[in-house]
Amino acid sequence: MQYLVNVIDSRADSGTAEEAAAIDEFNDKLREGGHWVFAAGLAHPSASTVIDGRGDEPVLTDGPFVETKEFAAGFWIIEATDLDVALALMAEGSKACNRRLEVRPVHTEA
């Protein structure tokens, strides 16, 4: 099963060189264990655009969907046999990136 893991932060561009090295090491561990699918950092929410295409014409709005102090600063998509395995792995991921993480199962059935 796949899991989306959101990296939760409240500070823009707050990562350190030490955290980046720890994340790289953790990512290598995910790859070696067959858990790696994809990961990336995200731009600050102020760089986002919200699109609402439910009407006759799409409406584009600058900025984040919701105003909040915390935001998704990055994410992983991992493969794990079950939630317990995903949580154990990402406890290490939280330590590596020095941030709180949100783990969510990905629905793969139509």
Automatic annotation (TrEMBL):
<protein>
    <submittedName>
        <fullName>YciI family protein</fullName>
    </submittedName>
</protein>
<dbReference type="InterPro" id="IPR011008">
    <property type="entry name" value="Dimeric_a/b-barrel"/>
</dbReference>
<feature type="domain" description="YCII-related">
    <location>
        <begin position="1"/>
        <end position="105"/>
    </location>
</feature>
<comment type="similarity">
    <text>Belongs to the YciI family.</text>
</comment>
<dbReference type="Pfam" id="PF03795">
    <property type="entry name" value="YCII"/>
</dbReference>
<dbReference type="InterPro" id="IPR005545">
    <property type="entry name" value="YCII"/>
</dbReference>
